[in-house]
Amino acid sequence: MTKLSWSRITFFMMLVFVLALAACGGGNDDSSGDEGTDDTEESEGGDSGEASGDVYNYEDFPQTVSNDAEPTGEGVLKVGYSSDTPFEGTLNWAFYNGNPDSIMLSYFDESVFTVDEDLQYTNDGAMTFEVDEENKQVTFTLNENVTWHDGEPATINDYVASHEIIGHPDYDGVRAADEGFTLIEGYNEYQAGEADEISGIEVIDDQTAVFTYTALSPSLTAGGFWAYLFPEHYYEGVEVADMSAAPQTRENPIGIGPYMVDSITPGEAIVYTKNEDYWRGEPQLDGVEVSVISPSSIVNAVESGDIHYVEGFPTDQFPDVADMEGVEWLAQLEGSYTYIGFKLGSWDAENSQVNYTPDEMKMGDKELRRAMWHAMDNDAIGERFYNGLRWKATSLITPYHASWHNDEVEVPDYNPEEANRILDEAGYEDVDGDGLREDPDGEPLEIQFASMSGGDIAEPLANYYIQSWREIGLNVVLTNGRLIEFNTFYDMVENDDPSIDIYQGAWSVGTDVDPGGLYGPNASFNYPRYATEESNELIAQGVSEEAFDIDYRMDVYNQWQELMVEEMPVIPTLYRAYVNPVSEQVVNYSEEVAFSDEHALYNVGLSE
């Protein structure tokens, strides 16, 4: 189902990156976030921490099902979302935060844009766009056949409304600072409450609008344009500040996709029925059911035939069930990475900016951070916990963006002796002889480490890192003495909880290579709270008009990748691929990134 690959892309498309937060959570992955986000990605964990011994390469797996039968046009596709955390239930793209909700959203409300193999927007979706570089304008045209699930025709005003909602001073979501919004002429004045409308948006007719920008950025056509409509008519009478918690968002959401929400079991499951008026054509299924299933139970659900497909199959479990009958295993590179983040400041909510104060933070000494990097054997972790389906990360621009990933950047290797030398020279010594180092002032040094629960690997992996750091004399302990549930984890990280010095997270990176949504000075997702003049300048250069020159932009991002290794506000730990089982009954399903009408969600079906 290309749709599923697309949902992973859009998940943190606006950074989306939801939270994409790719949080780490166990064997299950999903990432995000917007601005995130994986969805959020999850925390990691594994069985006893021992792999089966087999090492796999995701490139050896197919991306599309081999069943080429005609779909029957009937039946219900049953999907299992592997997670030990309920989905939050904020079911509108403007307001959702994590990957679990993005998964649920993707079945009933779709992006108006599609992408090609290079993750660039194409004009094969519900909306087309035409760029006028000379006048810094973009003309958006919505297909006149698109309708909302309540039967109301969608118009270009629904696209304008999404910008007006997200840019509104009372908006309580996380996407208002994305440059797809901030570059629109008059947007910042509107957001500040100084104007009643966004002056750079002109509605021409029911299907067409012209957006004027203060500058055109290469990021706009690679995930920068906001990709969703907002059903303004459906929220009539609801104040913007109340929309994220309104019944229209939580209980009875609507969209424009091939399936529509029939019923919701909060946090547990959503039943969708066919949208016979879907603009591309009638879907090939009567409906879809998506259920949250514990990672410990997901294999049984597949083997028993209770589900046809898994979202976020626990990677660590694959070697034990690789020969399962009745399914076909598909794999794909994830636009995600896991990382160790260091708290280096705080978030200034009043001014919507990072307050970078390393001198006041426990982890502000980059030599301490460098030593911790040298203590981690991420090559071994990839093989031991994930059988090669995750592997050592180097740069914060991942191989998912193949043309931009700098695979020559030099990073600290696994070298405990070098880690000890660095700490000795930096003044972190064992003063009292207990085997643990004090800080340079001779005071006890306890580093509180937040890591997420989820899946069999979560606890062994967290313990593996803790033990690795203890072996170089660092006293690292779990925040609150335990692993933390997904939603609580991100609440604590977002709010700069003082009980967190370092944390293990993950990010879904979205379609655009621009790292500004995660590490920019005004990015709320900049959880390390890192913002230096050099980094800020490089991030700005990467989305400038000069960056339309590919060589220029590539040089900028090479410099930024090298700076992040030098400064290490976060340590990238693992890149990832996912493998998912698909029932042999399923047809027209694919994990390919580029949009294909043949494999779009509405064409996915079941065979006899």
UniProtKB/TrEMBL annotation:
Organism: Corticicoccus populi
Taxonomic lineage: Bacteria, Bacillati, Bacillota, Bacilli, Bacillales
Pfam families: SBP_bac_5
Keywords, comma-separated and alphabetical: Signal, Transport
Regions that span the bilayer: none
Region (Disordered): 28-73
Entry keyword annotation includes Transport: yes
Coiled coil region boundaries: none
Entries under SUPFAM superfamilies matching the protein: Periplasmic binding protein-like II
Residue ranges occupied by any Solute-binding protein family domain in the UniProt entry: 128-521
UniProt name for this protein: Oligopeptide ABC transporter substrate-binding protein
Family: Belongs to the bacterial solute-binding protein 5 family.
Origin superkingdom: Bacteria
Compositionally biased intervals (Acidic residues): 31-47
PANTHER family linked: OLIGOPEPTIDE-BINDING PROTEIN APPA (PTHR30290:SF9), PERIPLASMIC BINDING COMPONENT OF ABC TRANSPORTER (PTHR30290)
N-terminal signal peptide: 1-22
